[in-house]
Amino acid sequence: MKIKTNYYDREFNQVIMPIIENEEYQKTKDCIHHGMNRYDHMIRVSYYSYRITKALRLNYKETARAAALHDFFFEDINDEGKVKRLVNHPNVALENSKKHFELTQLEEDIIKAHMFPVGRHIPKYLESWIVDLVDDVVSVYEKTCVLKENMSLGFSIIMMFVMMLKK
């Protein structure tokens, strides 16, 4: 089975293919993240970070790789440990990434810094700042999509009850 992304950029797919083909990485498809799955979130952040850094003539390949790994962890963020997980998950993602992939200093910085200012690591590179901002924008987008779906479902249920009452 050949693994594909939803993005039709051949170079992007070639850059991240060694990551997304990894068996452990595939398990992120089963992790809920912003109401969606963590795999799709990481690929989305990776793609838009790749596009921006490529347009700016920065290190877009390492940026795409690191962005694809920025949330490479498996624990769910539960209510009790939400703040702790929010702050610490970049370190967990970095350790998981190091277990499965060789990383450059830039890639390590991108993963560690992607939660700034919530996280404790200040980005050292422009690419790190870009992934941090793209992750924020993508997260808002994903949460908005989930909210919209939930509102649509709620409206449909209300309409169904109204139609039943009319009969």
Strand content: under 5%
- What is the annotated CATH architecture? Orthogonal Bundle
Give the end-to-end Cα distance, rounded to a whole number of Å: 51 Å
List low-pLDDT spans: none
Can you tell me the CATH superfamily? Hypothetical protein af1432
Radius of gyration: 18 Å
Mean pLDDT, to the nearest integer, reads 85
Widest beta sheet: strand line-up: 1-2
SSE pattern: HHEEHHHHH
How many helical elements? Answer: 7
Outline the secondary-structure elements:
Elements: H1 10-20, H2 23-26, E1 32-33, E2 36-37, H3 38-55, H4 60-69, H5 82-100, H6 105-113, H7 126-166
Antiparallel strand pairs: 1-2
Helix pairs in contact: 1-4, 3-4, 3-7, 4-6, 5-6, 6-7
Provide tags for this entry.
single chain; 167 residues; mainly alpha; Hypothetical protein af1432; two-stranded antiparallel sheet; globular
Describe this structure in words.
- By secondary structure, the protein is mostly helical.
- The protein has one domain (10-166): Hypothetical protein af1432, CATH 1.10.3210.10.
- The chain contains 7 helices and 2 strands; from the N terminus they run H-H-E-E-H-H-H-H-H.
- A two-stranded antiparallel sheet has the order 1-2.
- Helix 3 (38-55) packs across helix 7 (126-166) and helix 6 packs across helix 7.
- The longest helix is centred in the C-terminal third of the chain and has 41 residues, at 126-166.
- The chain starts with 9 loop residues before the first helix and ends with a helix.
- The model has no long low-confidence stretch (mean pLDDT 85).
